[in-house]
Specification:
The chain is an alpha+beta fold and about 190 residues long. It contains five helices and eight strands, in the order ββαααβββαβαββ. The radius of gyration is 16 Å and the shape is globular.
Amino acid sequence: MIGIEHVTWPPAPLRTERLVLRESEARDRPAFIELFASAEVGAHLGGARPRDELERRVPEVPGRRPGSFVTELDGAMIGMVTLAQRDPDRPGHIRPEAGEAELGYTFLPQAWGRGYAAEACAAALDWFAAARPGEPVVLCTQTANDRSVRLAAKLGFTEVERFEEFGAEQWFGVRSPLTGPPTGSPT
């Protein structure tokens, strides 16, 4: 298996025109709780989680694992971008042995519609392409999540298949280093 598990972590913070992508810190905990308690955010992710449960279970420094970037705007967390190994037991793979890196992203509703997700994901994909040259990245989202499907296309992902999972139709795509957009923020 090749993918995110073979990169040096954490990298130096990634900086874009407006954002910083960095490892999680204790000060991010309230934003993590807000993110996972949000009904809007959870609409295509299996629903919001109860805030009281999150208050009890979210660790002091949440989301601290290889491939998990906090996306920061003006010193505050607005979302997260992840690159993680896709679970080999899930449907949707481009290799017989599985092990692909999978891009994921979630942002607080107040950050939606401003291009932050595209900017952050492009930076994370550029970092991964430098860390693991030649490795493709996959992405899976509900077909009902129009915004996410449009973002995937903007980032250079092409549809490979659709399948039923978690009670909904899923869009599964791949971004090959040869077919992805040029490095830098997508247009």
